[in-house]
Amino acid sequence: MPNVTHLECSLCAQRFAANQIHNLCSCGGALLVRYDLDSVRKTWTRDSLAQAKPDLWRYWPVLPVNRRESVVSLGEGMTPLIETRRLGAAVGAKDLWVKDEGLNPTGTFKARGAAVGISRARQLGATTIALPTAGNAGAAWAAYGARAGIPVVVAMPKDAPSQTQREVALYGARLHLVDGNISHAGAWVNERAAAEGWYDASTFKEPYRLEGKKTLGLEIAEQLDWRAPDVILYPTGGGVGLLGLWKAFAELRALGWLRGADDAPLPRLVVVQAAGCAPVVRAWDAGAQTTAPWEDAATVAAGLRVPSPLAGGLMLRALRETGGTALAVEDDVIRRALGDLARAGLWLSPEGAALLPALRQLRASGWLRAGERVVLLNTGSGLVYPDVEPLPPPTS
Amino acid sequence: MPNVTHLECSLCAQRFAANQIHNLCSCGGALLVRYDLDSVRKTWTRDSLAQAKPDLWRYWPVLPVNRRESVVSLGEGMTPLIETRRLGAAVGAKDLWVKDEGLNPTGTFKARGAAVGISRARQLGATTIALPTAGNAGAAWAAYGARAGIPVVVAMPKDAPSQTQREVALYGARLHLVDGNISHAGAWVNERAAAEGWYDASTFKEPYRLEGKKTLGLEIAEQLDWRAPDVILYPTGGGVGLLGLWKAFAELRALGWLRGADDAPLPRLVVVQAAGCAPVVRAWDAGAQTTAPWEDAATVAAGLRVPSPLAGGLMLRALRETGGTALAVEDDVIRRALGDLARAGLWLSPEGAALLPALRQLRASGWLRAGERVVLLNTGSGLVYPDVEPLPPPTS
Fold this sequence. Notes:
Chain A is built from 14 helices and 13 strands. Chain A is α/β, with parallel strands linked by helices.
């Protein structure tokens, strides 16, 4: 952690030492990793990146790991940013790009959080790592735990995708199935981790996976030659990626790496959720400061089934501060979009597919202007969801 | 095709113009793309690569596409080369690396051939592209065809993996199922392509997918800082990747890019096949000059079920010329290796998993010396094979 100065509470700004295990702040806020960016700015240049290996570790000066030898890697990051002109023209968004996180180890963007989180956990002396998951994070942490030789315990809803359950076991992790959703899995981990001395890697209780997800934003900026896109659509469950994007662009601005005026707007962030579990959208529409738990959460996009995200309030703040918005999409619409995208050569996760109809809505309402540069953040490969059947196009 | 001079028969050296559609030579030999490497050598440097985008198109001067705008890409290539010290120590191969081709679009190395093949087919005016496949190539060509907006017809054995069949349809390609194996599918394509005017993209009847696979070798060399590894293990079905590796290292030597003496040995190539379909291994053991069709081919590693590879003789030559070898592995051993690898964090395709027991055999026999640098070429992600169940470790 060449440049980490401390951890800082996202709500009350209390500071914590970075070389000890911390979960949430006493006020309940998630902790953010802070760097000495002035110092980084003096020694790190955009040009030096050109020589760096094409994985997320190229952003080493703003990552929270002490030594290169501690890195647990399976080649995660530097996924393609694919320009999709034909698809863009079809939906009236000419400058449309897909960041394809399916090309990560374990097939999803969760690999980023797991790589950085497990690298850091190892340095902090974790002997067993436990986490609740709606699905994909479990597979990723199980894989990286196996790679690191650290036992992993994954708690998952009984009705999470069966392939993911199988994958966790395949990697040799301990799989605990709960009746209920990720909130119930989280309660189980919370109780057992305390009793057993496990390292609790629950979303936002562990400050480092956010740093891994942050590299999404760093890559998008680098791939667009340090011009921030106008809008990024993000399929939102726990929201780590959303806040990672927000933090990435804030840090890039502090480093002076973004082209354009110093006060040029950062990308407007858009939360896209499934209509069957949309706590952030509901709170956004109500102008609330925080989210309330969603009852009977259900959606084909398993990664979006997070009824009570811990950082709901922080997500809403990210939307307000970037001039973003939030909207929800029905499952049938998601499944139809899956087919539309596949016929354009992109078999995405249902979470990623939800972004296409959301984009259509934003164009129809005029919120998104023609000619704006838009990035759809596809969080995983269709291969991860063999059981999700696309719907055929509507007959007209 | 800035530097392509012609196509050359791999058997009789007859030359063909590169700007026309050609399949096999009249003598039956596969055609190889030839470049003016003297000219390339004068204008292209290893240093210039450092600035290039991390996909296979970074090797543009030795790829057969005329214009950048013609490229059909989904972000293929520049997959990680993962050092696996713990696994290596466990099998007595300390300097062991896995080239993980699972991190490609559609989850397999077939994306390389499809990207280059379809980019080139579009330039040659193909309006419909047809190919037979044991499975994964079908998914890849369907995806890239969808991306390019060119219809694709895929002929596949009825008992090819069901997920792959589904994927081909998902991408909007026409799926034709045949009773039998890839040879029967090939016969159907041969007949129908001639009748319908389809562009025949069968393995080796189409000279350009080999150029895509060649980038595997270019990347391995670049990732090892232009030092060729001692040995590369390759799971062999049709053998395009094997010959691609061979061609890559030959071209790198001609360019003078490999470190070490000009006459230093190129990597010894190792053909690994499934015991249920091992025509190359059988021919190698018999000292034959070519392969004979394998009867009743059957294996859990669908990509290895190629009973009568068109370039069998050329593969045997590649083994002889590089000092390589060939060996086969039983399905149960493959399925056990799948589990061993997953518990080290690597969920590979069964084809890729076959390489681990092959490596153990080569160490046990002494063919592979301790300390030699070995690359296992994993051709795909475990996600592509949800139905292949690993076996538990043997109880002792």
